[in-house]
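Troubleshooting log. The previous structure file for this entry was overwritten by mistake, so regenerating from the original sequence record. Sequence copied from the archived sheet and checked twice against the printout by T.R.
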Amino acid sequence: MTQPELPALDTVDAALFDLDGTLVDSEPMHRAAWQSFFASRGWEVSQETYTAHFVGRRGSDAFRGIDGPWRDDDPEELLAEVLTHLATGSTQPGAVPGAVELLRRVHDAGVPIAVVTSAVPPWAYDALEHLGIAGIVSVVVNGEDVAVGKPDPAGYLQACARLDVQPDHVIAFEDSASGIAAAAAAGIAHVVGVLTTSTADALRAAGAHHVIEDLGAFTR
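Regenerated output below.
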């Protein structure tokens, strides 16, 4: 089946982006932190389970929604523990290839930009500052702005409302199945999967309309 053509920038009313794995190449760092956390607890969690159920989601939502050895623990306390493992990392991740260039091109075209992320506010804003794109992002919806995180569509719907645009006139970029599912459930017109953390099959199964190698592929 032939993939439909990606839309031109001047045909959308807004561009919405996930953060981790889509704009910032932070997934290896996050994966290492989660692996360290699981190991410290003596829990065996496969890479398949981690990718399918934890990547792109708020950690507390994953703990609540997935059966596992954490079932009797408080999800928020577990997430706080995960963040201590993340804090041990010393390297600030860089941008996903093509990310900064695409956001600047979108901004230059006069298209408003929102970031819809499961991340906590300090990480989200620090990452955007580090990439040098905080000033061109009109709206940031972080993991604390919604009652339920991805794959629920609340974050994308909130971003559209704050930008005063309709979901069926915007484009969204995501790297995880849960993020793709959230954008699709929100009724986003063009849901683009980026092959940084998940397979093309997984992204398409979650509802991606397009799948690209990296964000530079959009401008190419």
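Strands lie at 14-17, 113-116, 139-141, 170-174, 190-194, 210-212. Archived copy saved in two places this time.
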